[in-house]
Amino acid sequence: MNKYLASILTGWVATVLCSVVGVSAPGAESPLVLWYNKPAGRWVEALAIGNGRISAMVFGGVAQERLQLNEGTLWAGGPYDPVNPEAREALPEVRQLVNEGKYREAAKLISAKVMAKPLRQMPYQTVGDLLIDFGGSTNAENYRRELDLDTATASVSYVRDGVRFSREVFASAPDNVIVVRLTCDKPGQLSFVTTMRTRMSATVSTAGNDTLVMNGMGGSSSGIQGQIRYQARVRVLNEGGTVTAQGSEVRVTNANAVTLLVTAATSYKRFDDVSGNPEALTVACLQAAAKKSLKRLRADHLADYQPRFRRVTLQLVTAEGKPWPTDERIRRFAEGNDPQLAALYYQFGRYLLLSCSRPGGQAATLQGLWNESMTPPWESKYTININTEMNYWPAESGNLSECVEPLMAMVEDLTVTGGRTAQKMYGARGWVVHHNTDIWRASAPIDGPQWGMWPCGGAWLSLHLWDRYEYSGDSTVLRRIYPVLKGASEFFLDTLQETPDKKWLVTNPSLSPENGHPFGTSICAGPTMDMQILRDLFANTIKAAALLGVDADFRGKLAAARARLAPNRIGSAGQLQEWMEDWDLKAPERNHRHVSHLYGLYPGRDIHRRDTPELAAAVKKSLELRGDKATGWATAWRICLWAHLGDGDHAFEILKYLLSPQLTYPNMFDAHPPFQIDGNFGGAAGIAEMLMQSRMGTVGDALNPSPVPEIEVLPALPKVWPSGQVRGLRARGGFEVDITWSEGRLVQAQVRSLKGGKVKLRYGENTREFTMSRGQTRRWDGK
Ligand code: FUC
Predict the structure, then answer these.
(1) Partners of 515 in the beta sheet?
(2) What's the rounded mean pLDDT across residues 632-647?
(3) CA distance 160 to 628
(4) Reduced to 3 states, what is the DSSP secondary structure of residue 675?
(5) Using an 8 Å Cβ cutoff, are 64 and 368 in contact?
(6) Which of 13, 237, 524, 656 has the most CB atoms lying inside 10 A of its own CB?
(7) For 500-558, what is each residue's pLDDT tens digit?
(8) Strand partners, 221
(9) What is the reported pTM?
(10) Ligand 1 pocket: which of 124, 383, 390 to mutate (most atoms <8 Å of CB)?
(11) Per-position DSSP letters for 391-456, written without gaps between them
(12) What would the pLDDT profile of 90-107 be if each residue is shown by its tens digit?
């Protein structure tokens, strides 16, 4: 065995052993731990835990612990339909104005008659805080606060007045509780008062001698009455000492150890049903959890979480982290000698996804599940012209396909509300969603024409459903998603417009998210991104129908329409045109954060550096013109794009910026700024795309229902990661992939087939095809 490989394997085994017994190797930090030597001073220093339904930000204070709590269905407003009744009549005139180049007039008319009422959607809200007051001074020795990604547990430990106090906090998915365990190393030293507080409309009271209860209502917003009722409930279980309740407080005196069980629930059942009973839910939940021992609760949490999280391991150069607190590592990352911090960032993305997007819960919002505000930025809802999609970019390759379930469920809801919008606004079949949605699945255009008048949000979202099929090859998934894809396609068959000159089929009105063109607005016809999304959507719908053996006529219509969509075009500067016309160099914001027209390279399928080199070169030119630095998510997208151009060093240069204090807070949350979680997920996807890319056939195979999947290993490996190992990535076609490399070269790729079939492996210019049976493993050294 090669010496490097041996040291990597030894390191990896040591790491696994260390994480199993929960200690770090002497002198080095475990690679899966975020840690700090002081309590969180700000929200973006607190540590995030969650189980896909409830979550907490853990501050770790010495005199007072603060857990800022969320419940995923606690939103403002109630069921509503914002479609503007004048829209349908106004749209023909809008289209005419766009065709005549009267873009400003078109925008004005959209503003007056087409935009949703109300113009804004409903915000995601907060439960409030659970406070645990220990009193006394904030002075402590040997303070340490950490988040262990391998156990999904936040912990705090310090010595005060000669006593070591420890705290452990985890969010269990199987029991739907947040468990807070408090201990001390001398008997009878634990005394505190606990209560809850919130800025929401709510009351706090106690029940029995050991329970806190908060009852509240979601707020009203933009004239939509708040209709969601919620309850948070905390049970205090003491070992030794006494527990008493009074007013809105529970007091513990001289205990040896205490466990707090925390849960929350709302009356939200579906976008059109708020008849749930939060009290019944929280009571039943805590009764069940209180019957379990702490040991059992912890074991059930780990049995649920760890097998999912451990599906993928990643080691970049070394197995160990640096001996600095995580915020210090973020400050130093650009110095270039802490490659394992990128691995931690990748795994943190997977951790966040598992913590905020689980079957039965809601899809990850702009802030995942974590929000302390009643009026968060962009309402912490779903911006679907990039942000929500990006949240799910690392899901399939990161072997967490179950985390996509809430997104699928949301898209299925949107076929109902978006079906209403398609009918009422456009008189069209199928379903449509514009650039945002919320928990009520609102689907009409919001905010203003410049941002909202974009009909492709639902189409883009539905491509994640197709991805789920491509990664799994599961025919149950195919049957489930086909009606969604079909409805998304039908809407466009009914609404695409012919261009006056070239007779192309285009969206009109639309825009290239959210970039203004040279004529004072963003409103236009047939922006490049729309055409790329629709080529993917129509292709996937055609393939799904073919695989299911249905709708032959419809397939023919889609193929005919697909062939008439406006093509990708290269502009005068050699760039990929963002619009049908060559406007890029005249657009007012040359460094605009959105790179919508580059969707075709990633995550779309129109462009590939080997199959369509001219278009790939044009993408590169566009990226150079736009620049490397942008807001969090926009920076992460650039990493993914450079990885798909095969340029790992450039991708890494941009990663250095993403993983710097400008765009990464001390708790590793992404900064838009302020906090927005998409950059975490886009950054994690970018790291994975540097190490492996997979696709179903070539660009030319777009309509082929059974192409040979291609898995490319180390497509964009940066020089700064000369050695490493990744295990358990998922590839399209139903494969799991392990890759080991050293001295900048592939040592071995190992591929397991989950469903049988052909696969083409690629390393640089070398390729190798295998026909595999289900469960079979093949190894390849890239030669
Ligand atoms: C889009 C972006 C912004 C922000 C918001 C949530 O409007 O252009 O940068 O991410 O969504």
Answers:
(1) none
(2) 98
(3) 48
(4) strand
(5) no
(6) 524
(7) 999 999 999 999 999 999 999 999 999 999 999 999 999 999 999 999 999 999 999 99
(8) 224
(9) 0.96
(10) 383
(11) HTTTTTTTT-GGGGHHHHHHHHHHHHHHHHHHHHHH--SS----SEE-TT---S--S-HHHH--TT
(12) 999 999 999 999 999 999
Q: What is the mean pLDDT of residues 766-782?
A: 98
In this structure, the number of other CB atoms found within 10 A of the CB of residue 422 comes to 27
The residue among 123, 78, 51, 50 whose CA lies nearest residue 267 is 78
Question: Which pLDDT score is estimated for 28?
Answer: 56
How remote is the C-alpha of 612 from its chain's centroid? 29
Q: From the CA of 270, how far away is ligand 1's center (Å)?
A: 26
On the question of pLDDT at 634 being above 60, the answer is yes
The predicted structure's pLDDT at residue 21: 31
Place of tokens 């590839």: 731
Supply the residue whose CA is at minimum distance from atom 10 of ligand 1: 387
Token pair recorded at residue 634:
């926009």
The Cα 565–Cα 528 span in angstroms is 10
DSSP code, position 525: S
Which residue type occupies 53?
R
Tokens of 420: 């209403």
Cβ atoms 314, 726 nearer than 8 A: yes
Q: Which amino acid appears at position 562 of this protein?
A: R
Angle at the Cα of 487 from the Cα atoms of 481 and 493, rounded to 5 degrees: 135
Q: Please give the Cα distance from 496 to 722 (Å, whole number).
A: 49
What value does the mean pLDDT take over residues 639-659?
98
**Tokens 């509300």 identify what position?**
417
- The amino acid that residue 126 corresponds to is T
Other residues' Cβ atoms within 10 Å of the Cβ of residue 654: 24
pLDDT in tens, 6-42: 444 433 333 333 333 333 333 457 899 999 999 999 9
How many angstroms separate the CA atoms of 122 and 224, rounded?
8
SS3 74: coil
Amino acid identity of 154? Answer: A
Whether 121 contacts 115, CB under 8 Å:
no
Tokens of residue 538, six digits: 């129509």
Nearest ligand 1 atom to alpha carbon 631: 9
Please, what is the average pLDDT of the chain? 96
For residues 573-585, one letter each, b for 16 or more C-beta atoms within 10 angstroms of the residue's C-beta and e for the rest, the string is: eebbbbbbbebbe
* CA-451 nearest atom, ligand 1: 7
In this prediction, residue 675 carries a pLDDT of 98
User: Collapsing DSSP states into helix, strand and coil, what is residue 631?
Assistant: coil
Instruction: Kindly report, residue by residue over 166-209, the tens digit of the pLDDT.
Output: 999 999 999 999 999 999 999 999 999 999 999 999 999 999 99
Q: Which residues line ligand 1 (CB under 6 A)?
A: 366, 378, 383, 387, 514, 593-594, 631, 633, 672, 676
Q: What are the pLDDT digits (tens) for 316-340?
A: 998 777 889 999 999 999 998 899 9
Query: Tokens 């080691």 — which residue?
Result: 315
Closest C-alpha to ligand 1, atom 8? 514
pLDDT digit string (tens) for 245-292? 999 999 999 999 999 999 999 999 999 999 999 999 999 999 999 999
Burial of 345 (0-12, 13-18, 19+ CB in 10 A): buried
Q: Are 399 and 732 in contact (CB under 8 A)?
A: no
